[in-house]
UniProtKB/TrEMBL annotation, chain A:
Keyword Metal-binding (UniProt): no
Record function comment: Required for mitoribosome formation and stability, and mitochondrial translation.
Pfam hit, one: Ribosomal_S2
Entry-linked SUPFAM superfamilies: Ribosomal protein S2
Location(s) in or outside the cell: Mitochondrion
Keyword line: Mitochondrion, Ribonucleoprotein, Ribosomal protein
The protein's name in its UniProt record: Small ribosomal subunit protein uS2m
Gene: Mrps2
Primary localization: mitochondrion
Family named by the database record: Belongs to the universal ribosomal protein uS2 family.
Organism: Brachypodius melanocephalos (black-headed bulbul)
From TrEMBL, chain B:
Compartment list: Mitochondrion
Pfam families, per the entry: Ribosomal_S9
Keyword Mitochondrion: yes
Species whose genome carries this gene: Brachypodius melanocephalos
Protein name in UniProt: Small ribosomal subunit protein uS9m
Keywords: Mitochondrion, Ribonucleoprotein, Ribosomal protein, Transit peptide
Length: 216, 350
């Protein structure tokens, strides 16, 4: 059992997430398109490639690296049987995110976030509840264009976060930010597809390793 | 090596808050069901009946016999029912042994409500896709109007019962709006079954009151019956056609039964209104109430009986005259601290 857990950590890319996407895929899904110059957040400037006709373009090379790190991390969390919670407050993609979560066998929260969900969990739910081990944000802003409360709460509760940050978002408290477009349907579908594939792959690998161990 | 830093497991609740509603685990409910079945067999033995065919009614009778209780509140008396009825069907523990919740929307707080919204939205998308397919194939869209007048949506309380969790007013109105949106689409007939789960038939209030047809007795004379109530008096009247205007109450002629003119006027009012004073015979039976109440009851009964003899327009006239309405006035109770229902005790200044 110990070997099962320590074995994947020795390789830099145990689950081979690099082959899941290419730069061209990101470009075709319009991930590089950001908001206008006026909406730009100060802390997103390192991730922005340039500005064309007042619209920010996100640097896809950096996005590639960040996305690989993020997918690798989610795969490891899923491999160790952690609870993953998809969060997004975009009404357009609420159904898509919930279906992705259901397909992976993980959890989703695309509705109004009640204040004490993470910080006051043993009052809102039963005392013995288990909190999520990873939060994935498909959109870090809520409907009032402010940072989602869950980012701050996850940081308070020591829960690692993966988040798609657009040019008007604050990437500060997110452990694995992924600079990219969060408004286009194509981009969000791509992210959902990638996360779904990584999680399913990680879970399958876990089951295979357990079966191999049982046979021994 | 991995070093365990602060984990995210929620700290166990320390003293200082009110305990919430007791949550029952599945094992607890199972044990209660076993104990109930055992107790049922013991009870059947005690009563000398067959344990196999001991129904819930027998249990209730046995308990009422063994533990007679004069308590007013039914729920305070000794009770022996199946555990699923005693312990309300509420949230059992929502996660398995490893801590992973069963439902994928558990962390939202209102899992059943949001999963319902999710499903309904999925049906909506399905219907839209179907519509697009039909348009692509140039087929006509079905335009059969669903009968919206005869059905209503579930009320908030019914929805709460269905979902077993609290639903706020906002949430309820959003759900109804989503359902209405789904129903408004042209191809919504595909999801008819799903929509029927949330709609209920309205009790047919607007149906016209069925006027009974005339009956004929042995002599070939047409007659019809009517019933009426007033205060505590209830009356039944049989109105015969081709009569002379003779009216009998409890076998006694009205002149002897109702010495007061006012009561006789009340009896004759329906006939006078329709202009059929000398044309009908009436035989009535009346019980309860006082003089005036019995007169009012017979009046209502005869008016109801006369509906069968008369056209619909005249029935409408009778209704507007107030001949067909049951008079709801009853004696008001006396309240403590007052002398009568309304009269207060005399106010003395000093």
């Amino acid at each position: 059992d110990d070997k099962l857990l320590t074995e994947p950590l020795k390789h830099p890319d145990f689950f081979n997430v690099k082959e899941l996407f290419t730069l061209k895929d990101l470009f075709d899904a319009r991930v590089h398109l950001g908001h206008k110059k006026g909406c730009r957040h100060r802390f997103m400037e390192p991730y922005i490639f340039g500005c064309r006709l007042d619209q920010d373009i996100i640097d896809l090379d950096q996005t590639m690296q960040h996305l690989q790190l993020a997918l690798n991390f989610t795969a490891h969390v899923a491999y160790r049987g952690g609870i993953i919670l998809f969060v997004s407050r975009k009404r357009q993609f609420c159904h898509l995110v919930e279906s992705t979560a259901r397909a992976c066998g993980e959890y989703a929260h695309t509705r109004f976030w009640q204040g004490g969900l993470l910080t006051n969990a043993h009052v809102q739910f039963s005392p013995g509840v288990r909190l999520p081990d990873l939060l994935i944000f498909l959109s870090t802003l809520n409907n009032a264009f402010e940072p989602h409360v869950a980012i701050r709460d996850a940081a308070k509760m020591n829960i690692p976060t993966v988040g798609v940050v657009d040019t008007n978002c604050n990437p500060c408290l997110i452990t694995y930010p992924v600079p990219g477009n969060d408004d286009s349907p194509a981009a969000v579908e791509l992210y959902c597809k990638l996360f779904r594939m990584t999680i399913i792959r990680a879970k399958d690998k876990r089951r295979q390793s357990e079966a191999v161990e049982e046979l021994r | 090596t991995l070093r365990l830093i602060c984990t995210t497991t929620a700290v166990q609740r320390k003293n200082g808050g009110p305990p919430g509603p007791e949550k029952y685990t599945e094992a607890f409910i199972k044990k209660q069901i076993e104990e109930f079945n055992l107790g049922k067999r013991h009870l059947a033995n005690m009563m000398g009946e067959d344990p196999e065919t001991f129904t819930q009614e027998d249990i209730d009778r046995a308990i009422a016999y063994l533990f007679p209780s004069g308590l007013f509140d039914e729920q305070a008396r000794p009770l022996m029912k199946h555990p699923t009825e005693v312990f309300p069907e509420q949230r059992k523990i929502q996660w398995g042994e490893d801590g992973r919740p069963f439902h994928f929307l558990f962390y939202t707080g209102k899992q059943s409500y949001y999963s319902l919204m999710h499903e309904t939205y999925e049906k909506l998308l399905n219907v839209q896709k179907h519509e697009e397919q039909l348009i692509a194939q140039d087929l006509p869209l079905q335009k059969e109007k669903r009968n919206l007048a005869g059905s209503r949506w579930l009320t908030k309380i019914e929805l709460e019962e269905m979902l077993l969790e609290k639903v706020s007013d906002d949430d309820y109105s959003r759900f109804i709006q989503l359902l209405q949106k789904l129903v408004a689409l042209p191809c919504a007939d595909i999801e008819e079954k799903y929509i029927q789960k949330f709609s209920k038939e309205l009790p047919v209030q607007l149906q016209k009151v069925v006027i009974e047809p005339l009956q004929y007795d042995e002599r070939g004379v047409a007659f019809s019956t009517g019933e009426g109530k007033r205060k505590t008096a209830s009356a039944t009247a049989v109105v015969y056609d081709n009569g002379t205007g003779k009216i009998t109450v409890n076998g006694i002629d009205i002149l002897h039964y109702f010495p007061v003119l006012q009561d006789r006027e009340q009896l004759l009012f329906p006939f006078q209104f329709l202009g059929r004073i000398g044309k009908h015979d009436m035989v009535c039976t009346v019980s309860g109430g006082g003089r005036s109440a019995q007169a009012g009851a017979i009046r209502l009964a005869s008016a109801k009986a006369l509906r069968s003899f008369v056209t619909e327009k005249e029935v409408e006239f009778m209704r507007q005259a107030g001949l067909l309405t049951v008079d709801p006035r009853v004696k008001e109770r006396k309240k403590p601290g007052q002398e009568g229902p309304r009269r207060k005790f005399t106010w003395k200044k000093r």
